[in-house]
Design a protein that fits this description.
Structural class: alpha/beta
Helix content: 25-40%
Shape: elongated
CATH superfamily of the largest domain: P-loop containing nucleotide triphosphate hydrolases
CATH architecture of the largest domain: 3-Layer(aba) Sandwich
Number of strands: 13
Largest sheet: 6 strands, mixed
């Protein structure tokens, strides 16, 4: 596991921001999902050594538990939620400075600055003052600064904050590239369900400082019962009769003619569905397993009536 939390509690005075959180973040892209105020940023700050947990243990990569904040930040890239550029610096100078602060020699920091600005699509804007960048460009220069020292792990705090739909897509494409093509371990902290669902392979659901659910996306979105969506050319009445005879538990017609949602018992193999369609005089146009959306998983875990979704 890239990152481990064991019974972490974080307090600000009398306020408990995170209570008894135990979670594991494997390699690849992992989402830390929760509404604003759920404790996501507090966990990131604790992992970076910027604040000390009141209780519990945390580990990053193979660093010792008592590793200094500087040691941690040498191997971790951090993209904060809020703007953090230095007035007067251009994009190249901003990223190069971040490289120097991680311990890179001046020449290496300069080279890496050019490379990372090219990676995030700012190579033609690198000599412009960051203060004059658009919101999307400022997010990209923060990402380039987090990458400049080639860390194995990236902590991204609300990376699509303030971006328009096109900017969000571009940022999420970059995150996917980092995780899938460049083999970076990415911890993506966000309150936006679609961002996590699109980019992450695993997720930790956080609510009011507690972990409500966690695991691979494939497992979390699996329906508790066997649901399948079927599109068929068979006559509805004949198909319904054949499916019931085959042992299908429930047949729910969809608005589109010829579409059905089927509930199957555990013992019924999928070929039985194909056989039922054929016996009713039709063909199978589409048969896929129905999976829950991440929104359904989140609402089921937190027991809320609504959640902020963009």
């Amino acid at each position: 596991m890239t990152v481990k939390l064991e019974d972490i509690t974080i307090r600000y005075g009398s306020h408990v921001a995170v209570e008894g959180v135990t979670a594991e973040f494997p390699d690849g892209a992992v989402g830390l999902l929760g509404r604003n105020g759920a404790g996501k940023s507090s966990i990131l700050k604790a992992l970076l050594g910027l604040l000390r947990p009141a209780a519990g243990k945390l580990s990053v990569l193979d660093l010792a538990e008592n590793a200094s904040p500087l040691e941690i930040r040498r191997v971790v890239g951090y993209m904060p939620e809020k703007d953090c550029h230095i007035p007067g610096l251009n994009g190249y100078e901003t990223v190069a400075l971040a490289g120097r602060m991680t311990g890179l020699p001046a020449r290496d920091a300069a080279r890496r600055s050019h490379e990372m600005l090219y990676l995030v699509g700012l190579d033609e804007q690198r000599y412009r003052p960051v203060a004059g960048y658009s919101a999307g460009m400022r997010q990209k220069v923060k990402l380039a600064s987090a990458l400049v020292h080639d860390p194995q792990v990236l902590f991204l705090d609300e990376p699509t904050n303030g971006l328009d739909p096109a900017g969000r897509r571009e940022m999420l494409d970059l995150v996917s590239t980092l995780a899938d093509d460049l083999n970076k371990s990415v911890l993506l902290s966000s309150h936006i369900l679609q961002d996590v669902e699109r980019t992450c392979h695993s997720v930790v659901l956080l609510e009011k400082g507690r972990v409500m659910a966690s695991g691979p996306m494939q497992e979390l979105t699996q329906s508790p019962v066997r649901l399948f969506d079927l599109d068929s050319s068979a006559a509805p009445e004949a198909l319904a009769s054949a499916l019931r005879e085959a042992g299908v538990l429930e047949i729910e017609g969809r608005e589109t003619k010829g579409s059905y949602r089927l509930t199957l018992p555990d013992h019924l193999p999928l070929p039985a569905i194909f056989a039922a369609v054929v016996s009713s005089g039709g063909t199978v146009r589409r048969l896929v397993e129905h999976r829950r959306s991440l929104e359904e998983v989140f609402l089921g875990a937190v027991g809320a009536d609504s959640v902020e979704v963009r």
